[in-house]
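Attaching the record inline, Q. Sequence:
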Amino acid sequence: MNNLLIFFAIPVATIILSVIFETLIRCPFKIAGIAFSIFLITAFSLGGTAELLVLAIVYTIISFISAYLTAIFENRNDNNCTNQANNIENTNGINNMQNILNQSNNTCRRFR
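Structure, as predicted:
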């Protein structure tokens, strides 16, 4: 039971919480710092053995990696949405400009 907690439950919880906090805070270094402080306090409160301190560092690295990957994924997703929005705006702008030019050409033809 103890091995299952150390090698499965805590890393999975760390990954999930890091992803959630990354979407809120948007800084992987802050997420890793918060995780390290929590794991460090927990390690010292449970006895401060070398094994617990090493696990705190490993869990912090896992937290940083998951937060960093989330940040990369969100930036790519934001860039795609921004590019699509810019393309739509540019297309609308070009269409609006063509409509204005066509209307001005029609009015100029009327007066000729």
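Confidence is low (pLDDT under 50) at residues 107-112. Residues 48 and 68 are 28 Å apart (CA to CA).

More tomorrow.
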